[in-house]
Amino acid sequence: MSGTEHNPSFGPWSEGVREMLSERDAVWASAIETTSLSSWRSGILSPRFVELVAVAVNVAVTSLDADATRRHMRAALAAGASEAELFTLIKMGTVMALHSASLGAPILIEEAGAEAVDAAASPAGTTPFTDRMKAMGQWNTAWDPFFALDPLWTDAVMATGVGIYASGVFDPKETELLSIAFDASITHMYAPGTRRHIRGALAAGATVSEIMEVLKICVSRGVESLNLGLPILAEEVARARKSAGRS
Question: Rounded CA gap, 70 and 26, in Å?
Fold first, then answer.
């Protein structure tokens, strides 16, 4: 996973924003630049994988940041990522919406009671994709409650998971590292999944340093506040000054 040191032009930054920030507060700009570009400069993860992680935290259904997704997809392709890899990240960002059921189904069972749940549960049937996910070691016990409520729907959901985990687009270690990014991202912060995938990444051979780099890339997404806010601030200050000059 490690690679030679690399020093990209922007990392998580939109073009020109670092300069805008430096003009306003050079000391603070230097500090945030150091932290936000750390993973792009360290060489612990390859340039390709750094950008893939950045795509993950921006394309996720909890984020949906079009500008940042485009910027990091372009950088990932330039660093050697494949179309299949980026397509798989889009799939992964889609299926993470399953965490709504992970959160809600146990609460539903607790509040409705066993009898109501049994009455509402869908008819049992064959669940080949659920069985396959379990055989692959990718079943999450947090999914048991919604499986109990609707096993056939759950199996359809697991078909999408098999399509990702069994595709071979990413190796097991990369799959776990990317899954950490989705779950630990600031717009999601799903602790059970983060723990499960950190455990899986370590078992797949990831180092503590590699996992920490993924977390640091998640933190670097904070720069999107600057990418969004600084140009708007400049425009609105200019508009206010122009308006004041006419009054």
Answer: 28
Residue 19: CB atoms within 10 A of its CB come to 11
Per-position pLDDT tens, the chain of length 247: 544 334 455 899 999 999 999 999 999 999 999 999 999 999 999 999 999 999 999 999 999 999 999 999 999 999 999 999 999 999 999 999 999 999 999 999 999 988 877 777 767 778 999 999 999 888 889 999 999 899 999 999 999 999 898 889 999 999 999 999 999 999 999 999 999 999 999 999 999 999 999 999 999 999 999 999 999 999 999 999 999 887 6
Sign of the Cα torsion 183, 184, 190, 192 reads: positive
DSSP 221: T
By the 8 A CB rule, do 36 and 12 touch?
A: yes
CB 193 within 8 A of CB 183: yes
User: Where does residue 148 rank: exposed (0-12), middle (13-18), buried (19+ CB within 10 A)?
Assistant: middle
